[in-house]
From TrEMBL:
The keyword Signal applies. Keywords: Signal. Residues 116-378 form the Fe/B12 periplasmic-binding domain. This is ABC transporter substrate-binding protein. It comes from Segatella sinensis.
């Protein structure tokens, strides 16, 4: 789950490279230590990503720096990507002999291209297929939750992402582990002791949809794949859809989540989903909220706004469509929602649909869904624009609940 973030990224990056602020930055412990006195290099421009900085040092190596999204002014991790081969070996030796002139920061050296990896999340597996490096996936965690048929057929199951099978991971001899970091996780336990680079895939902490997608440039470098053209295509499609949405009247109000236990988590107004709804020109009852993560609300707080919610579009893991009767068995309070009494309920079953796999790095897919959901052509307000809306095509993931 995403957390609240407050980072002045321009100041942070300036301090990092010019040394005019605090160079005594803190990083995760337990990794190989490296200094800040790297060679001068060329920063690779990032248009949207706020937590990722990449500096290319000629053909010798690329330095990748991850800002810590949970602690202002600190780093999460640093990677030195060095090509395999004799020259790369010499570069590794040269860098290893250096002493830090100022601060020390946790660093992992990764030899590229990575040809064997264990991937802990479905979205990163899907991205590797798109980048043409699927054969570098040797093992995965949470295999039963990954909606990629080829993964289920041929890739080794390394257990749960929370309790991975260490022996099985060791047997695969991976060159990198791609994991999703969490705030206050306390490290990675036995994984930390394997001396295998842990790639902390913190892309989900980006607060803009295109910011997260832009991380594919980093992942592409790990496998010696250029992701620039893929990202450019995604960016162009996203901005085109955003322009279309601006020309439409403001859409209906959309709620995207369900009650979980005694809490009803909803996206903050400045979260990725909050921004997607804004770019879709949809209304969102929490659009004025300034949080970039999820909001833990009580059911009563949500229901107090129930009359303002026109469309309910939620995800679930099930295998069969949920009916309104089943939803009421789960929580009788749902019937207080305007969209429940005047059925505008859409659902996507993530056990059968590759929702997370595709939308994580393809925000244009989800943006199109939200434009269509918030601008139904059978609504009187949008009939005038029905032709333009229909040109967007049918919904890809969300299905209207019929019972």
């Amino acid at each position: 789950m995403m957390k609240k973030i407050f980072i002045n990224h321009r100041i942070f990056k300036a301090a990092l490279f010019l040394g005019i602020a605090s160079l005594l930055v803190s990083c995760q412990v337990g990794k190989t230590q490296a200094g800040d006195n790297m060679d001068a290099g060329d920063t690779i421009p990032m248009k949207y990503a706020q937590h990722l900085t990449m500096v290319k040092h000629g053909e010798e190596y690329t330095e990748v720096i991850l800002a810590n999204p949970w602690k202002e002014g600190t780093l999460l991790h640093r990677y030195i990507l060095v090509p395999k081969g004799k020259e790369g070996n010499e570069t590794v030796t040269r860098l290893a002999l250096r002493r830090a002139s100022a601060a020390r920061c946790a660093t992992d050296t990764v030899r590229t291209p990575v040809t064997s990896s264990v991937v802990f999340t479905g979205p990163h597996c899907q991205l590797m297929y798109e980048l043409g490096c699927k054969n570098a996936i040797s093992g995965v965690c949470d295999k039963n939750y990954i909606n990629i048929p080829d993964i289920r057929k041929r890739v080794v199951d390394c257990g749960s992402s929370m309790q991975p099978d260490i022996e099985r991971i060791i047997s695969l001899k991976p060159e990198a582990l791609l994991v999703s970091p969490f705030e206050n996780s306390g490290g990675y336990g036995k994984l930390d002791k394997l001396h295998i680079p842990i790639i902390e895939a913190a892309d989900y902490m980006e607060t803009s949809p295109l910011g997260r997608a832009e991380w594919m440039k980093f992942y592409g470098m790990l496998f010696d794949k250029n992701a620039d053209s893929l990202f450019t295509h995604i960016e162009q499609d996203y901005l085109h859809l955003k322009t279309i949405a601006k020309k439409l009247p403001q859409g209906l109000s959309v709620l995207t989540e369900r009650k979980t236990g005694s809490v009803w988590y909803v996206p903050g107004g400045q979260s990725t989903i909050g921004i997607l709804l804004k770019d879709a020109n949809a209304r969102y009852v929490f659009e004025d909220d300034l949080h970039s993560g999820s909001l833990a609300m009580s059911p009563e707080q949500i229901l107090s706004k129930g009359k303002d919610i026109d469309v309910w579009a939620f995800k679930y893991f099930g295998g069969a469509p949920l009916t309104r009767a089943q939803l009421l068995q789960e929580y009788d309070g749902y019937k207080a929602l305007h969209c429940f009494a005047n059925p505008q309920i859409y659902e996507v079953d993530t056990s059968t649909e590759p929702y997370f796999e595709l939308t994580s790095f393809h925000p244009e897919i989800l943006l199109r869904e939200f434009i269509i959901l918030s601008h139904p052509t059978d609504h009187a307000q949008f009939k005038k624009y029905a032709k333009d809306i229909r040109m967007l095509g049918a919904l890809r993931f969300y299905h209207r609940q019929l019972q």
